[in-house]
Structure formats: C-alpha cells, structure tokens
Amino acid sequence: MTTSSASAGATTPSSSPTSTTDHAPTPLSGAPRRFGSLGSLGPVGLVLAGGISVQFGGALAVTLMPRAGALGVVTLRLFAAALILLVVCRPRLRGHSRTDWGTVIAFGITMGAMNGLFYEAVARIPLGPAVTLEVLGPLALSVLVSRRAVNAVWAGLAVAGVFLLGGGGFSDLDAVGVAFALGAGAMWATYIVFSARTGRRFPQADGLALAMAVAALLFLPLGIAESGTRLLNPTTLALGSGVAVLSSVLPYTLELLALRSLPASTFAVLMSLEPALAATAGFLILHQSLSTTQTIAIALVIGASMGAVRTQVGRGKTTGSVGSTGPAGSTGPAGSTGAS
Fold first, then answer.
1. Closest C-alpha among 100, 330, 305, 54 to residue 194
2. Cβ neighbours, 10 Å, residue 87
3. Distance from C-alpha of 161 to C-alpha of 155, rounded to nearest angstrom
C-alpha cells in the first residue's frame, strides 16, 4: 500500500502501458545515477528491498500515530514526499490543458484518499491483514479487466483467504478497520486507473510530483484538525519524513532501477508478496503476531494475486496487451506499492 509509488508516465509507477509490450520506467531526472551502486543487489534484490522498505515504513507510521494521529501521519508523509519529488522532478506548471489538470487533481485526490483510508485501517488492525485486504482492490481490477474464466479460480482463492482472515465473520478484527482497509483497496484500484491517465498526459515523473502535491494540500486541513501543533514537533517531523522516504522515495527508486533489467511480469509477481512482507514487518517492529489461520489466509490471497498476474501476462502475450499495471509498468493486481 502504493502510495508509495505513483504514476510518472506511461512507463512509471502504477500506470498502464500504452504500447503492446512491457516497458521499463523512464527514470527520474538523474535519480538512478545517484543510486547506481544499489544495482549490485540485482533486480530481484532491488524489488524485495523496495517491498521491505515500504512495509517497514508502514510499521514506522504505526509507531508515529500516537504522536500525530493517523491523519497527521498521512499529512506528514504526503508533504515530505511531495517536497522531495517536486525538488527532484521540477515539473512544469505551464502548458497543460484543463483536462490535464483535472486528471492530475483527480489522481491526487485518489492518492490522498487511499493513504488516509489505509492509515486509518492500520491504526485499528494489524499491518499484515490490512495490506491483505487492501490488495483485494487491485486484484479485483485485474480480474475484471482480464475477463477470463480462470480468474474465477483466483477470485475464489481470494474470497477464501478473506473468509479465513476474518475468522468467518471478522470477529477477530476491528470491523471499522476492515472497512477502512477495503476502502483503501477500492481507492488503490481507482489510483491505478488515474495513474495511467496521468502518465499519458505528463512526462517522466511530473504527474506524480504534481499529484502528490495536490494530495498533500488537500490533506493538510485534516491533519491540522486532528493533530494541530503536534505536526510541528521536530521529532514528529523527522519520523514523518522517514516514513515518506521508506514508503515512497526509496522504494520508487529501487523499483525504477530494478525494471531496467527485470521483466515487468516478474516484478508484479514479486510485488504480490507484499502482504507477507507486511506481516513480517508487523511482527518484528510492532510485535503483531498472526494465528495459523490468518497466515494461511494471507497465503491464499498471495496465491490469488500471483495467479491473476500470470493470467494477465499470458493474456497480454496472446492479445498484444498487458492490461492494467502497477508501478513502473508492472502488470497485475499487486503491481504497485499502494499506501502501505
């Protein structure tokens, strides 16, 4: 739960490719060169490192909530990420049509809503189940886009996983937290759609930077209303900036480097492991343990996500299109880091 990553163009986070093949992302201005030494990890290592960064950033956000509240943490994360991206990308403000601005504003609204709903969820339920429920949004989008009968199998696996995760009725999870996580998943699916549209209208990462700024400005009143002057505490500001780096800037850079040599379909399958990474981060940082049933439930959702990814990739090879994507042109339901 990207966002961590967002659209930067047709070949950047959470966008849909506009041609018939998988694409590597267009780099942020000079960013990959600054982190070139990270390439020694190998593409798979970079993706896994990015996923770990996202989920441990989410765990850090949970520890920050007593200081700033869920909405305050979202405000700090969005503002810090927007500031970094605006400085790095330096997007042009002139020369865009009303439709361009309408698209990027809608993208920013969706991004803010996705982050807000997810952080409200993890304030109430463990990180692993929250990410598992959130990934259902992109998974549902992938199944609907594919329209293949085999996707009924993946949908069934996901439903079985959700049923187990809730103990047959979510008696072990806060119902409001579950609702927030599902809402975040719906916003994640919407985010993918608007990310693709933004990517087709703005070069490189300009759309991402502008949408992040829109989300930050729109969220500011909510953050102030909940947290007030607590947002100005130096420690809180530092931790919020850390969340932004771990959950947005660092994973985006790592994914960008990885996709130079890693097929987008492989990237998407690796990103399907996010619920497991989230559960690990929740256990190590937040001491949130999972029952055997919940572990099986998360495994079922991961399996459904991977299956949907592979089905979508197979469809792309036979029809000349890879369908909806996640960050940096990755294909499939879990192909972006969402809001976590």
1. 100
2. 9
3. 10
Q: Which amino acid, 305?
A: S
pLDDT in tens, 52-63: 888 888 889 889
Distance CA(286)–CA(183), nearest Å, equals 23
Query: How is residue 135 annotated by DSSP?
Result: T
Helix (H) or strand (E) holding 231: none
Q: What is the pTM of this model?
A: 0.71
At residue 126, the 3 state secondary structure works out as coil
**Where do the H-state alpha helices sit in the chain?**
31-34, 43-89, 98-122, 127-134, 136-146, 151-165, 175-201, 206-227, 234-244, 250-258, 264-271, 274-286, 292-319
Cβ-in-10-Å burial (0-12, 13-18, 19+) of 207 comes to buried
Instruction: Please give the DSSP secondary-structure letter assigned to residue 26.
Output: P
Report how far residue 270's alpha carbon sits from residue 65's, in angstroms, rounded to the nearest whole number.
Answer: 29
User: How does 249-288 read in b/e, with b if 16+ C-beta sit within 10 Å?
Assistant: bbbbbbbbbbbeebebbbbbbbbbbbbbbbbbbbbebbeb
Nearest Cα neighbor of 92 from 176, 250, 207, 182 is: 207
pLDDT tens-digit series, residues 129-148: 888 888 788 777 767 766 67
What is the rounded CA–CA span in Å between residue 216 and residue 204? 20
In this structure, the dihedral spanned by the alpha carbons of residues 325, 331, 335 and 336, taken in order and rounded to 10 degrees, is -30
| In contact, 174 and 125? CB cutoff 8 Å | yes
Q: Give the integer Cα–Cα distance in Å for 158 and 191.
A: 21
